[in-house]
Amino acid sequence: MAQIKRFGYGLQAMLVMTSHNKLHSSSEIAKLIQYEKTQLRKILSLLVEAQLVSVQQGRGGGYYMTKNSKDISLFAIYNAVNPGQQPEWHRLLATTGENYFGQQVNESFEEITSELSLAIKAILTKYTLHDLLQDRSLINM
């Protein structure tokens, strides 16, 4: 569940930055998306590391977008906030036993988790931040 929450809060933070063309403090973003600011800073640092967001340090500084919202897929955001991690649905594989039955079920689970990964990647790649802004009239909230 942590992966999905990080993705959701990271996505919301980026929507805030995209819809308001200015520097945003982590406190300001946290208040708007109703999330704990120290946890948000961890997510923002992952977005900075992935070069989707930049930060200007110091007084009057804050976070801002480094790319156009049309060029950032939701899959890029998901990967940025979950670097090098297997998707949570892969935990399904750990539920099977080592006996014959468990091995057979595990093979089925491997197919399912592989298909899930491909389907989710296709869906998240299809949408951009810009799409979400347009769909929900989030600009100038």
Strands side by side in the biggest sheet:
1-2
Instruction: Describe the sheet with the most strands.
Output: 2 strands, antiparallel
Overall radius of gyration = 18 Å
The assigned structural class equals mainly alpha
Distance between the termini: 28 Å
User: How many domains, as an integer?
Assistant: 1
Residue share in β-strands: 5-15%
Number of helices: 6
- Reading the helices and strands in chain order gives HHHEEHHH
CATH class: Mainly Alpha
> Kindly state the mean pLDDT as a whole number?
90
Shape category:
elongated
- Unreliable stretches covering 5 or more consecutive residues: none
CATH fold annotation: Arc Repressor Mutant, subunit A
**Helical amount:** 55-70%
InterPro entries: Tscrpt_reg_Rrf2, WH-like_DNA-bd_sf, WH_DNA-bd_sf
Organism: Kurthia sibirica
Protein name: Transcriptional regulator
Pfam family, one: Rrf2
Describe the structure.
It comes from Kurthia sibirica. GO terms for molecular function: DNA-binding transcription factor activity. This is Transcriptional regulator. The protein has 141 residues and is mainly α. The chain has helices at residues 2-19, 26-33, 37-49, 74-81, 100-126, 129-136, and strands at residues 53-56, 62-65. The chain has a single domain (2-136), classed as Winged helix-like DNA-binding domain superfamily/Winged helix DNA-binding domain (Arc Repressor Mutant, subunit A). It is built from six helices and two strands. The protein has a two-stranded antiparallel ribbon. A hairpin with a 5-residue loop joins strand 1 and strand 2. The longest helix is centred in the last third of the chain and has 27 residues, at 100-126. It is elongated.
